[in-house]
Protein backbone atom coordinates (compact mmCIF):
# COMPACT_ATOMS: atom_id res chain seq x y z
CA UNK A 1 0.00 0.00 0.00
CA UNK A 2 2.89 2.37 0.68
CA UNK A 3 3.87 4.56 -2.20
CA UNK A 4 7.46 3.32 -2.25
CA UNK A 5 6.14 -0.16 -2.81
CA UNK A 6 3.93 1.12 -5.58
CA UNK A 7 6.96 2.78 -7.17
CA UNK A 8 8.92 -0.44 -6.88
CA UNK A 9 6.15 -2.39 -8.61
CA UNK A 10 5.94 0.18 -11.38
CA UNK A 11 9.68 -0.10 -11.93
CA UNK A 12 9.57 -3.88 -11.99
CA UNK A 13 6.75 -3.99 -14.50
CA UNK A 14 8.32 -1.38 -16.73
CA UNK A 15 11.56 -3.36 -16.67
CA UNK A 16 9.78 -6.54 -17.70
CA UNK A 17 8.17 -4.74 -20.62
CA UNK A 18 11.35 -2.97 -21.65
CA UNK A 19 13.10 -6.29 -22.05
CA UNK A 20 10.44 -7.60 -24.38
CA UNK A 21 10.18 -6.74 -28.02
CA UNK A 22 6.53 -7.70 -28.02
CA UNK A 23 3.61 -6.53 -25.89
CA UNK A 24 2.68 -8.72 -22.94
CA UNK A 25 -0.61 -9.40 -21.22
CA UNK A 26 -1.03 -8.77 -17.50
CA UNK A 27 -0.94 -12.51 -16.92
CA UNK A 28 2.36 -12.85 -18.79
CA UNK A 29 3.86 -9.96 -16.85
CA UNK A 30 2.74 -11.61 -13.65
CA UNK A 31 4.47 -14.86 -14.68
CA UNK A 32 7.65 -13.05 -15.74
CA UNK A 33 7.80 -11.37 -12.34
CA UNK A 34 7.23 -14.65 -10.58
CA UNK A 35 9.97 -16.34 -12.60
CA UNK A 36 12.29 -13.59 -11.46
CA UNK A 37 11.23 -14.24 -7.85
CA UNK A 38 9.29 -11.04 -7.44
CA UNK A 39 6.07 -11.57 -5.58
CA UNK A 40 3.58 -9.18 -7.10
CA UNK A 41 -0.03 -10.29 -7.12
CA UNK A 42 -1.97 -10.39 -10.35
CA UNK A 43 -4.44 -7.80 -9.06
CA UNK A 44 -1.52 -5.50 -8.30
CA UNK A 45 -0.13 -6.05 -11.78
CA UNK A 46 -3.46 -4.93 -13.23
CA UNK A 47 -3.59 -1.90 -10.97
CA UNK A 48 -0.05 -0.84 -11.74
CA UNK A 49 -0.61 -1.34 -15.47
CA UNK A 50 -3.66 0.90 -15.27
CA UNK A 51 -1.73 3.56 -13.43
CA UNK A 52 1.16 3.42 -15.89
CA UNK A 53 -1.20 3.67 -18.81
CA UNK A 54 -2.91 6.69 -17.28
CA UNK A 55 0.48 8.32 -16.88
CA UNK A 56 1.17 7.74 -20.54
CA UNK A 57 4.07 5.38 -19.94
CA UNK A 58 2.37 2.38 -21.44
CA UNK A 59 0.21 1.72 -24.41
CA UNK A 60 -2.36 -1.03 -24.51
CA UNK A 61 -2.61 -3.07 -27.66
CA UNK A 62 -5.52 -5.14 -28.83
CA UNK A 63 -4.53 -8.20 -30.82
CA UNK A 64 -7.98 -9.50 -31.65
CA UNK A 65 -8.33 -11.78 -28.64
CA UNK A 66 -9.96 -10.94 -25.30
CA UNK A 67 -6.62 -10.14 -23.67
CA UNK A 68 -5.20 -6.66 -23.45
CA UNK A 69 -1.48 -6.41 -24.08
CA UNK A 70 0.82 -3.71 -22.86
CA UNK A 71 3.94 -2.20 -24.27
CA UNK A 72 6.25 0.58 -23.21
CA UNK A 73 5.88 3.84 -25.06
CA UNK A 74 9.04 5.38 -26.36
CA UNK A 75 9.78 8.36 -24.15
CA UNK A 76 10.33 10.80 -26.98
CA UNK A 77 8.78 11.79 -30.24
CA UNK A 78 5.79 10.80 -32.23
CA UNK A 79 6.73 7.16 -32.52
CA UNK A 80 3.21 5.97 -31.90
CA UNK A 81 2.27 4.03 -34.97
CA UNK A 82 2.98 0.38 -35.38
CA UNK A 83 2.67 -2.62 -37.58
CA UNK A 84 1.52 -5.39 -35.28
CA UNK A 85 1.73 -9.06 -36.17
CA UNK A 86 -1.26 -10.87 -34.71
CA UNK A 87 0.59 -14.20 -34.84
CA UNK A 88 3.89 -13.54 -33.10
CA UNK A 89 2.90 -10.14 -31.62
CA UNK A 90 5.94 -8.50 -33.08
CA UNK A 91 5.47 -4.75 -32.97
CA UNK A 92 7.25 -2.78 -35.65
CA UNK A 93 7.27 0.96 -34.90
CA UNK A 94 6.79 3.24 -37.87
CA UNK A 95 9.14 6.14 -38.10
CA UNK A 96 7.22 9.34 -38.38
CA UNK A 97 3.52 9.80 -38.90
CA UNK A 98 1.79 8.63 -42.08
CA UNK A 99 -1.29 10.79 -41.48
CA UNK A 100 0.15 14.19 -40.63
CA UNK A 101 -1.35 15.71 -43.77
CA UNK A 102 -4.71 14.11 -43.15
CA UNK A 103 -4.71 15.51 -39.64
CA UNK A 104 -4.20 19.09 -40.76
CA UNK A 105 -6.71 18.61 -43.56
CA UNK A 106 -9.40 17.33 -41.15
CA UNK A 107 -8.53 20.04 -38.69
CA UNK A 108 -9.16 22.69 -41.32
CA UNK A 109 -12.22 21.05 -42.83
CA UNK A 110 -14.06 20.52 -39.55
CA UNK A 111 -12.56 23.38 -37.51
CA UNK A 112 -11.52 20.73 -35.07
CA UNK A 113 -8.44 20.97 -32.88
CA UNK A 114 -6.94 17.50 -32.98
CA UNK A 115 -4.88 16.67 -29.92
CA UNK A 116 -3.81 13.20 -30.81
CA UNK A 117 -4.72 10.20 -32.89
CA UNK A 118 -4.26 6.47 -32.64
CA UNK A 119 -3.23 4.40 -35.61
CA UNK A 120 -1.93 0.86 -35.73
CA UNK A 121 -1.90 -1.70 -38.50
CA UNK A 122 -2.60 -5.35 -37.80
CA UNK A 123 -1.61 -8.30 -39.90
CA UNK A 124 1.01 -10.98 -40.40
CA UNK A 125 4.71 -10.20 -40.48
CA UNK A 126 7.10 -11.48 -43.14
CA UNK A 127 8.66 -13.97 -40.75
CA UNK A 128 5.34 -15.56 -39.81
CA UNK A 129 4.28 -15.80 -43.44
CA UNK A 130 7.63 -17.28 -44.39
CA UNK A 131 7.65 -19.87 -41.64
CA UNK A 132 4.07 -20.95 -41.93
CA UNK A 133 4.67 -22.99 -45.10
CA UNK A 134 2.03 -24.60 -47.30
CA UNK A 135 -0.22 -25.63 -44.39
CA UNK A 136 -1.41 -22.15 -43.62
CA UNK A 137 -2.04 -21.61 -47.30
CA UNK A 138 -4.51 -24.46 -47.32
CA UNK A 139 -5.95 -23.17 -44.06
CA UNK A 140 -6.63 -19.91 -45.76
CA UNK A 141 -8.49 -21.49 -48.64
CA UNK A 142 -10.54 -23.57 -46.20
CA UNK A 143 -11.50 -20.36 -44.49
CA UNK A 144 -12.56 -18.84 -47.75
CA UNK A 145 -14.62 -21.89 -48.66
CA UNK A 146 -16.20 -21.97 -45.23
CA UNK A 147 -17.77 -18.59 -45.74
CA UNK A 148 -21.49 -18.77 -46.48
CA UNK A 149 -22.49 -18.42 -50.15
ZN1 LIG B 1 4.75 -12.45 -36.94
ZN1 LIG C 1 0.57 10.09 -36.13
Automatic annotation (TrEMBL):
Lineage top rank: taxon: Bacteria
Keywords: DNA-binding, Repressor, Transcription, Transcription regulation, Zinc
Pfam family of the protein (one): FUR
Tagged with keyword DNA damage: no
UniProt key word Transcription: yes
Transmembrane regions: none
Gene3D superfamilies documented for this protein: 3.30.1490.190, Winged helix-like DNA-binding domain superfamily/Winged helix DNA-binding domain (1.10.10.10)
InterPro entries: FUR, Fur_C, WH-like_DNA-bd_sf, WH_DNA-bd_sf
PANTHER family in the cross-refs: FERRIC UPTAKE REGULATION PROTEIN (PTHR33202:SF19), ZINC UPTAKE REGULATION PROTEIN (PTHR33202)
Similarity comment: family membership: Belongs to the Fur family.
Name of the featured protein: Transcriptional repressor
Species classification: Bacteria, Bacillati, Cyanobacteriota, Cyanophyceae, Thermostichales
Amino acid sequence: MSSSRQTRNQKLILEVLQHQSQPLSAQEIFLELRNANHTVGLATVYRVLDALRNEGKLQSVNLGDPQTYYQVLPSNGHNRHHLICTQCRQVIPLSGCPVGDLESQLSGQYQFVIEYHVLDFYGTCARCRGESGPESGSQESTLLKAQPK
